[in-house]
Amino acid sequence: MYLLLLAVIYLTFISLGLPDSLLGSAWPVLHAEFDVPLSYMGLVSMIVSGGTIISSLMTERLTKKIGTKVLTTVSVLLTAIALFGFSCAAEFYQLVLWGIPYGLGAGAIDAALNHYVALHYNSRHMSWLHCFWGVGTIISPYVMSYALTHTAWMDGYRTVSYIQFAIAAVLVLTLPLWSINKSKKAEEGSTKTLGLKGALKIKGVKTLLVGFMAYCAAEATTMLWASSYLEDARGAAKDEAAAFGSLFFIGITAGRFLSGFLSDKLGDNRMIRLGTGIALCGVILMALPFKTMSIIGFIIIGLGCAPVYPCIIHSTPRNFGAENSQGIIGIQMASAYVGSTFMPPVFGLIANHISMKLMPVYLAFFLILLLVMVSKTEKQCGTQK
Description:
This protein has 385 residues and is mainly alpha-helical. The chain has a single domain, classed as Up-down Bundle (Growth Hormone, Chain: A), CATH 1.20.1250.20. The protein contains 16 helices and no strands. It has helices at residues 2-17, 22-33, 40-66, 68-87, 92-120, 124-150, 153-173, 196-200, 205-232, 238-244, 247-266, 268-287, 291-305, 308-320, 322-353, 359-381. Helix 6 (124-150) packs antiparallel against helix 10.
């Protein structure tokens, strides 16, 4: 039963990843059909990410009231309804409106399950949890590519919404499984509240928040703009760009699977540095004026990004103390959403008014900033290796 519940949690994280790569895959067609600038994808993603920030901040309170299992089930159902709404959109403003419930549902799933796994399962499952998020991000671009080739973009969104409804049904049927961990000593919400002011007074927290924001800025920008970059800067066809845009997600998924085996041997700090260095190599490849090199570059960027998010979260107790980790992890996730909310739209403006070809420079800036901030955090916390 313990492993069956874990399988259900992994399946739920697939549902979290499914919509994340859908907008970027469809946008080359959507912005032309709705007759809006290329940069407007940033507006949709900002609305979605804004919803995730709000719901993640509310998750602790909601979890205490209705429990993780009910909150997760309702949130998956909410994202399914929102994606079906996307498929029915006839005007751009409707995409924006449906982005609100999608963001609210996704943020609650992310925060609730990350906390639950950290509370009830050992650390390697955190890497594998995010690996299953990657499985979802790999599937949906191919669904959208098939829809663009054979029918229309609406069918891509509709298909993914049906998958979400099916996962919500599985969650309803398996609600009794969540009771198996009730005997655990640690309970949800049992630790004291640290608060934002208290967290910022701890050495190293400020620099790590900036570094985490920088990482998520790079990841989200790659995730949302990969297909558009391949089409606009490297001359790929729309359906080809939609399919190849998923290669970043293939890289990050494979990398997180491997990270589950390597993290304990190399340690979190080395994994973060190694991953960031690999991602920078991928950025160099995507900057080369060859479509094939750019495609390979996105895979390598994904491989490099893979260990960063899980290792930053996993290193929090060691950096700041177990008694402070729960509060700081919540603030870290908020900083992550800030990076993923505001930085991709900024690049959209750059692409719209200057050139899409500046994407490698934009990504390199944030990856280098990540390395600098992580190094400063290690020095301030005394955790260098």
